[in-house]
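Action item from last week, closing it out:
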Amino acid sequence: MKKIYLACDHAAFNEKNEILKYLSDKFEVVDLGTNTAESVNYPDFGHSLAIEVLKNEAIGIALCGSGIGISIAVNRHKGIRGALCRDKEDAKMCKLHNNANILCLGARRNSLSELLAMVDVWLETEFEGGRHETRTKLLDN
């Protein structure tokens, strides 16, 4: 069973929990927090997620209010390709062409149904490789 790591800040606590429930039947889902709606620092959760994704050669989903802050946090780690997505086309292309290993979402920017639709598209899309693999390798230089 494929392993997916989830992490969020307080602004996306409810949405993270809904995504966790949604995916739990199909995947091994590891919840890295936060486990409260009280204010926390998104970089702490983004860093934890990036470390686990790298260590376990897994994938992850990161959420915060806008998706911007946590996407910056995860991308501070060499080997992480975190993509902030606003719609299904972004979710498709970030995997197809960029082999994104962390999907970054904004809980205050999209409805739950939109978030779940992006998760589905991202998980269903395979990396195209080829010329795109050459480019993604350049990201870690």
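Closing note: The two ends are 32 Å apart (CA to CA).
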